Amino acid sequence: MRSKFMAVLSTTVLPVDGTYKVESVQECPDLAGVPHYIGHPDTKAIVESLGAVQAESRLFPGLNPGEKAVCFPIQQGKSNRRENGFTRPHQNVRLEDLQVRIITRIDGMSYCPFCGTDTLDGWHCPGCGAS
Ligand SMILES: [Zn+2]
Fold first, then answer.
1. How close is the Cα of 124 to the center of ligand 1, in Å?
2. What pTM was computed for the model?
3. What is the mean pLDDT of each run of 10 residues along the chain (131 residues)?
4. Distance between CA 63 and CA 129 in Å, rounded?
5. How far apart are CA 73 and CA 5, in angstroms?
6. How far is ligand 1, taken at its centre, from the CA of residue 23, in Å?
7. Residue 121: what pLDDT?
8. Ligand 1 centre from 119 Cα, in Å?
9. What's the CA gap between 72 and 74, in Å, rounded?
10. Which domains does the chain have, with CATH numbers?
11. How far is the CA of 45 from the centre of ligand 1 (A)?
């Protein structure tokens, strides 16, 4: 089982103090069933086409240690980079205009001593299978 995201956001919102890792990724992660807090209509349409669902609250409550969120800020300026893996042939919104960034709250988190993977507070390492 891959690590589940807690939220899909339009910007890098960090309402709770903590230590965070923010990384840009080339491939859009699986958003199926992940609640989103996005108001921008185009971005909303994109994330919903990828499986994200509207959150019950409009207010993102923040991340607990070890939790992750995906955000899709609109790229400033023009991107001349063609991102592979994003293109959906029948999509009329432009996923390539969005950056994909993953926020992980890393304070209070537990790492696997064998491979360094975040064990997500569990005893079973999702990276190497150690327990
Ligand atoms: Zn491991």
1. 8
2. 0.68
3. 78 86 90 93 91 93 90 68 47 73 85 77 80 77
4. 25
5. 17
6. 21
7. 67
8. 8
9. 6
10. 7-105 (3.40.50.11170)
11. 36
